[in-house]
């Protein structure tokens, strides 16, 4: 078993019309044994920027703490929040710094940039970025997430339709992966508000 599959995870970020959604499953497991059903994989950096971390749970929490520290230093020095593109470069640099003993994480970054343009990207454990204009996925359920998102995504979705699409894609995908699931956690972010919802999923 790959170390990336040790805890199991499913992450997805998708863009809409001047908004984006980021969602994850809630299961924390040790291989096939479930430890918790309310595990947090999505972190708020600021009101317009969110970070999802899939992979080894302990490395994800360590990496998140380092990123919070660096973002706070940036806020003190620049007196403003980081743009999503800048934050993606920071995450990439921190991961590449540790390339010979990497954090076993696959980050998903989603944010609203200038003129409320949504930005999403993911990267591998050594910081090689993959930018997308529609959706990005990560985690052990990523294969089935790709299929669900390909079939459900359409351009220019409003926030409510985007929420419905992301939720259906997530729930149908984790049913096909025994290492992730047990409900979902969805954030839909628009220029004016952040909506957070918990999804109930299959518990078997």
TrEMBL record:
Q: What Gene3D superfamilies does the annotation carry?
A: Glutamine Phosphoribosylpyrophosphate, subunit 1, domain 1
Specify one Pfam family: Proteasome
Family in the record: Belongs to the peptidase T1B family.
- What job does the chain carry out? Component of the proteasome, a multicatalytic proteinase complex which is characterized by its ability to cleave peptides with Arg, Phe, Tyr, Leu, and Glu adjacent to the leaving group at neutral or slightly basic pH. The proteasome has an ATP-dependent proteolytic activity. Non-catalytic component of the proteasome, a multicatalytic proteinase complex which is characterized by its ability to cleave peptides with Arg, Phe, Tyr, Leu, and Glu adjacent to the leaving group at neutral or slightly basic pH. The proteasome has an ATP-dependent proteolytic activity.
**GO annotations under biological process?**
proteasome-mediated ubiquitin-dependent protein catabolic process
What are the alphabetically sorted keywords of the record? Cytoplasm, Nucleus, Proteasome
Record the organism: Gossypium stocksii
Q: Does the keyword Nucleus apply?
A: yes
Q: What is this protein called?
A: Proteasome subunit beta
